[in-house]
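Thread: Newbie trying to understand structure tokens

Hi all, I'm a second-year student working on a class project, and my supervisor (Dr. K.) asked me to get a predicted structure for one chain before our next meeting. I've only ever worked with sequences, so writing a 3D structure as a token string is new to me. If someone could post the tokens and maybe explain what I'm looking at, I'd be very grateful. Here's the chain:
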Amino acid sequence: MMQPKFGRLAEGGARPAVGEECFLELLGAPGGPRVERILSRGASSPQDFWYEQGWDEFVLLVSGAAVLAFADGSERRLEAGDYAILPALCRHRVAWTDPAGETLWLAVHLPCGAGGIQLADPRAESGLLRAPAGAAALHGAAAGSCVRSSCDEPPRSQQARG
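---
Reply by user tm_fold:
Sure, no problem. This is what the structure looks like when written as tokens:
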């Protein structure tokens, strides 16, 4: 008989130094969604770097603080409990994370063709908000890996410059 597994989101895996992000895949299956824990400490994407992923992503900021920047020039500050739904091909970057402590993110990457993110929202008449489905295959960082925010080739998504 299979036994349940337990853990703590903030424990285990590599810890980031100032200017680093560490990625730890928590759950994934071939062709299915992937759940990833990200720890950041004073990390930011290079000014000319954009994530431009071919899949939808839901990110929840569990603790700490961060600022996401978008290609249209807008920025959004996130604090503990805030989330973002990033549809496929939404150009974004991490503009800032708190250098005084770890920022803990929970990211859910949806596979291509999953039909988009559906989020229950009591304000919406149908109870669902919908983002468009992604268009490319998932790939990401190795479990427990760390990357410096200044790296040219972060392992966790497709990227675009400029």
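A couple of things are worth pointing out once you decode it. The chain is about 0% helix and 40% strand. The domain at 25-139 is CATH 2.60.120.10 (Jelly Rolls). Feel free to ask follow-ups in this thread.
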